[in-house]
Amino acid sequence: MDLTCSPSAGVKSEDPHAAPDDPQKTSSDDPVDRTVKEESCDDDDDDSGKSRALTLIACRTFTNRLHCPPTENGGEKAYQCTQCEKSYGKPYSLNIHLRTHTGEKPYHCLECGAGFTSLGDLIKHQGLHATERPHSCAQCHMKFAKVSDLKRHRLTHTGEKPHRCAECGMSFSQLPSLKRHQQTHSGERPFRCPDCGKAFSRALILKEHQRIHSGEKPYRCAECGVVFSLKSNFKAHQRVHSGEKPYRCEQCGMSFPQTSTLVRHLRTHTGEKPFSCERCAMYFSRLSSLKRHQKVHGRGKRQET
């Protein structure tokens, strides 16, 4: 079999005993596709009659300038973001930046399930699990490596929401939460599921949705082995083991492990009933209560027939 290797081909002869490549020459922000394919190659120059095994590796983008072709403007920032007009000198830097718009976080911490836009951020985060956490929360005794992380965490206890949406007036404790919310006003949903056609505003939400079809559950609890498809469900489950209840009701002092549980509880104080029955206009504080009620109409309809 004749294999011709061009400068752009992803063909590489692998020697298991060879020293690893110079990381500066082959470093890439995204990991190489681990899937490899072996094919035998009859070398016309080899008289031994044996076939050599060649490993075909998926093409990769090299981030070092030795491997990057020169840009048209002499290597200056030639790669521009179409979303916010920021520019970058290398394509991989632009790819990492684009994830701030799409919400994609392909790198996940096996320790806690946290997601990150770049491998560098993941490595930096993993250091937190191995380092000291001298900053402790006085209310729930959670510990943090940075004062800034502790300050953000305290907002879950105080209920302070300094980030306000100029469009509708809703407030949020975290800036990323505000940015996600602002996407709901634009109504744009460019990310469509190829399996069912449902559209989403962010790539990350689409990725989580697709796990419904694939059955993938990448988040595993180290305590009991239960697996989850959604990071939010995984983190909520971890609080079952830790007993952490960071979301506190300012009205009565009760604490809850999830924001959704706190929101449902708050309706017992406000009397809010956001779920209404279309058949009889009754209102309910919980969606589950509405669904139980709707079964009453379903039974009545069967009895009539």
UniProtKB/TrEMBL annotation:
SUPFAM superfamilies: beta-beta-alpha zinc fingers. It is found in: Nucleus. InterPro entries: Znf_C2H2_sf, Znf_C2H2_type. One of its GO terms (cellular component) is nucleus. Residues 1-49 are annotated as: Disordered. Gene3D superfamilies: Classic Zinc Finger (3.30.160.60). Coiled coil: none annotated. The keyword Lipoprotein does not apply. Pfam families: zf-C2H2 (PF00096). The lineage of its organism: Eukaryota, Metazoa, Chordata, Craniata, Vertebrata. Belongs to the krueppel C2H2-type zinc-finger protein family. This is C2H2-type domain-containing protein. Residues 12-39 have a biased composition (Basic and acidic residues). It comes from Denticeps clupeoides. Residues 79-106, 107-134, 135-162, 163-190, 191-218, 219-246, 247-274, 275-302 form the C2H2-type domain. Signal peptide: none annotated.
